[in-house]
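Supplementary Methods, section 5.1.

A reviewer requested that the exact input to the structure prediction be made available. We therefore reproduce it here, unchanged from the version used in the analyses.
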Amino acid sequence: MDLLTRDQTTTYVPPNDVIKTSAPEMKVNYTIFCLYSVGSANEKLALQIISCYANPALAIVGFSANMLCIEILRRSGLRKPSNIFLLSLVVADSMSQLQSMNFGEILMFWGPDQKHSELCGWQYGETVDFFLFVSTVGIYVLGGLGGCVNTFVPVLITAERMIAVFFPITFKKIVTTKTAVIAAFIAYAIWIPWVLTFSTLYQFYRIPIYNKDYYSFVALGMKYFKNRPLYDLLNHYVFQVFSSWVPVAIVSVGCTFIGVKVFYTLRL
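The structure derived from this sequence is encoded token-by-token as follows.
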């Protein structure tokens, strides 16, 4: 799960422009322009359909399916350890899907009634713009947390199955409702500090433009650029590794051991 890289297909960052931010003492060496403003009409239309319609529609379908899964798990019994893990997985998946329905980000790139359509940003007034900034970063936090947990919960499910296969006699003593709840809580808790830390790197920019108009947008702030090597190192070699390759490797090895154990047990 990448907590820094966002979809940059609709933005271009000129390196030499200097603009004032909402904080008077700070300056940033870039302004955000819309790349589609120099692209063809067909490219713009295709990108708009994907961003504004296709991705949110698929996310709504997935979110609805997850709500159905929650109801099925509720009727099956939420005191079962396996159902607790599945519920945690469904909730995490729903959180990650919010990123495809991030209305603040969609409005930043495709918002209607923009006075200056060449600029990617919000042009609805300071109060509304700041609300969109808060909601956008909030969805980044929820989506980032959900994405990290989404790959970690299968590790817990694999561990539960391994205990059931290799220690069937003591399984019910080890895997209880209490231990399942604690494990699911830890799956979320260990990622919260990291996700919140990265969320503080985003800043609200309100930029003066022509005729006393303003436009606003969210982007990585000076806190990130001052410590860029450190944050990039953590992002690429901590988050992306421990939220992708490590869980996949653990689940793969665990499933292999389970398969071998079941195979030889059935042959006896």
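The longest strand covers residues 202-208. These observations are discussed further in the main text.
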